[in-house]
Amino acid sequence: MVDLNNDGFNDILSGSYSWNNRERGMAGTFQVLYGGDDGFKKPVDLTGTDDDVLIIPAGDDNITEKICTRPTAVDWDGDGDLDLVVGNFSGTFYLFKGESNGGFAPEPEPILANDAPLRIPGAHSDPFLVDWDGDGDLDLLSGSSQGGVYLAENTADTKSAPVYAAFETLIEPNGYPQAGGADTPNAPAGSTRIWVDDINGDGKLDLLVGDTARIVTYPEGMTREQSQTLQAEWDKTTQTIIAELQAAQEDPQSEAYQEIMQRYQAHYQSRSEFILEESTGFVWLYLQQ
Predict the structure, then answer these.
(1) Which residues have C-beta within 8 Å of that of residue 181, sequence separation ≥ 6?
(2) pLDDT tens digit string along 127-163?
(3) Backbone angles phi, psi at 247, to 5 degrees
(4) N or C: which end of the chain has fewer CB within 10 A?
(5) How would you classify residue 191: left for phi > 0, otherwise alpha for psi between -120 and 50, otherwise beta?
(6) Distance, CA of 27 to CA of 64 (rounded, Å)
(7) Do the Cβ atoms of 98 and 86 come closer than 8 Å?
(8) For 77-98, what is the mean pLDDT?
(9) Which pLDDT does position 68 carry in this prediction?
(10) How much is the average pLDDT of 77-84?
(11) Given 3-state DSSP classes, what are the helix, strand and coil percentages for the chain, each rounded to the nearest 5?
(12) CA angle, 81 as apex, 118 and 111 as ends, to 5°?
């Protein structure tokens, strides 16, 4: 939470997106719940100094650039005004500069590293700005769709606006590990989101990492080896049906295509006969040594 409009109350800031905005197409906006004496007000779109909704600009051929993820309010350039550093589905970052009285410039500027857009490995950039290395300036950390945690070090003078190096890996991505039977994941999976704080009060910054993972189990009485054998057979049949669909795709309304599609749907559902999957997520704590 942060006091966005300088009224003495904490506000809640979040990213969101809409699939059916006729004027803006599929675009991300920034929702804010302003605080007050009687609690938080209903969420509204955050606007710029021109009273229009803040949106990352992008053409329809690069729609993911303007679908926002986490917005972070921070005094980027040390002028006393809060600025917005925002992520997006493409994996890049933008800055909406703060202006007086809690306003924001309508047009953002891309955040760069070595004269190119700062970009995480993977997608869904998740900016968290903090002095990670203790040198008095703002470094930028992020999670990623592919997992892992990444650090872009601020190489500028502490009194200047940040200048970032390219991302380095703090925590390696671990793919999408499956937990089955006695197995448990031993590291974050994909779609990581992060928070930085001194969790154990030792004066060092620690990492909280959320993820998306799959829990895999097997039907009663079936071993992992039996399941894997059936999975291999299932994969072969899947490839055959997909090839048939591709051959018939010129006329998707034909009876032949519809029959193949029904067969594919029934085949896909049969997967539950030898493997059971559940999507979930974990929160991981990394204590800095």
Answers:
(1) 217, 218, 224
(2) 999 999 999 899 999 999 999 999 999 999 777 789 9
(3) -70, -25
(4) C
(5) left
(6) 8
(7) no
(8) 90
(9) 79
(10) 88
(11) 20, 35, 45
(12) 10
- Cα 54 from chain centroid? 19
What pTM was estimated for this model as a whole? Answer: 0.78
CA distances for 248 relative to 121, 168, 261, angstroms: 37, 46, 10
Q: Is 227 exposed, middle or buried (0-12, 13-18, 19+ CB in 10 A)?
A: buried
Percent of the chain at pLDDT > 90 equals: 43
Cα 28–Cα 40–Cα 53 angle in degrees, nearest 5 = 25
Q: How many CB atoms lie within 10 A of CB 98?
A: 23
Q: Are 286 and 209 spatial neighbours (Cβ–Cβ below 8 Å)?
A: yes
Cα 17 to Cα 209: distance, rounded to the nearest angstrom: 23
Q: Tell which residue, 101, 106, 104, has the closest CA to residue 76.
A: 104
Arithmetic mean of pLDDT over the chain: 86
Quickly count: other Cβ atoms within 10 Å of residue 250's Cβ: 8
| Confidence (pLDDT) at 162 | 93
CB atoms within 10 A of CB 112: 14
Per-residue tokens: 111: 């955040």
Length in residues, the chain: 289
Give me the amino acid identity at 194: I
Q: Backbone dihedral region of 238: left (phi > 0), alpha (psi from -120 to 50 degrees) or beta?
A: alpha
